[in-house]
Design goal:
Layout lengths: L2 H11 L16 E3 L5 E4 L12 H14 L14 H13 L4 E5 L2 H12 L5 E5 L4 H10 L2 E5 L4 H14 L6 E6 L11 H10 L3 E5 L14 H4 L8 E5 L9 E5 L1 H10 L1 H4 L6 H15 L1 H21 L12 E5 L5 H13 L2 E2 L2 E2 L10 E5 L6 H12 L3
Parallel strand pairs: 2-11, 4-5, 4-6, 6-7, 7-8
Antiparallel strand pairs: 1-2, 3-9, 8-9, 10-13, 12-13
Amino acid sequence: MNKSQQILNQLETQQLKRSLKAIGSRQGSQLELANGKNLYNFASNDYLGLSQHPLVLQSFEQAIKTYGAGSGSSRLLAGSFSPQHDLEDQLAELKQQQACLSFSSGYATAVGIIPALCDKDDIIIFDKLCHASLIDGIKLSGAKFKSYKHQNLDQLNSHLQWASQLRKPNSRLIIITESVFSMDGDICDLASIVSLKNQYQAELMLDEAHSIGIFGKTGMGLAHELNLCSDINYHIGTLSKSIGLSGGYLTCSKATKELLINKARSFIYSTAPPPAIAVAAQTSLSLISHCEGLSLRDKLWTNINYLTTQLGPIQNNISPTSAILPFFTKDGSAQQALAWQKELEKQGFWVPAIRYPTVGLNQSRLRISITTQHTRAILDSLIKALSSLN
């Protein structure tokens, strides 16, 4: 037996082996699997349903006719099309920053920017539940780092004291956190983190992947809702969730953008995303930041509030903080989470089991994603199905 098979067998024994599910339909409130089975979809991050919006689709189709299906090159060679520059200008303006640089994915954004900004003389302090892409970027950077227990700002303060004594002149001290945490669905105490950042003369990197489109008057995230945009040095975001497409970006200073163009390896050495994505993303951002976006956010929050209220008697720790609802197993085991996933699938629902290493050992749960496309009838059906689990 070769080593790969041994590892697979071990994962199987631990109930941690993953597999892919072939989908034969577009995203929506329902998915049609390749085998013809239909499931109500509670796994999508397309929170506002914009991946299927007629205007977004129309702009995508027109841009493909104009620019073709691919970019043909990296941005630094011949792949930097005008729509990509226009998108970056739009994002910088909406996020109230000087500049923006877009990447092929959210993962590529994180693993590109952190090593480009930091080296062995710098120090990074980050929330323990930050996304894997951020943690990988931190490790690749070679910087000194410490994590603080999730949302534990006393420990963050202690780590900042340690870093202040250790840091060298002109070295970076960066705090990294998500605004909405991708597996727990809770939001960070951004105002307090900004206060600590200012106290220790640190910089702050905020990943708003799961808050774009959902928070703020124009849907630009938690920092906008709290009027703290100017206190964030590095705004990470994604085109892959509420914006309904794919890709990532960083809004920042002009100097930081120029540095990343020259040093971010995931930017320099990747073929640019198709320019049609940038065109469609501009349409999506225009919808998010104007009246239709406000209406979609109202609809989404109505669904969030309804589902969390109805599930409250089943799980006391569920609260309406974002479009992500963790539904915890009784013992935190992967086996229980998988059993619940299979039972829900039998009843016609796709609600994925989340297991180690995506979450901690013995912290397995179902992850419920709520979108505008869920009707009250679908939500009621899910509530009934979740209530039957034991």
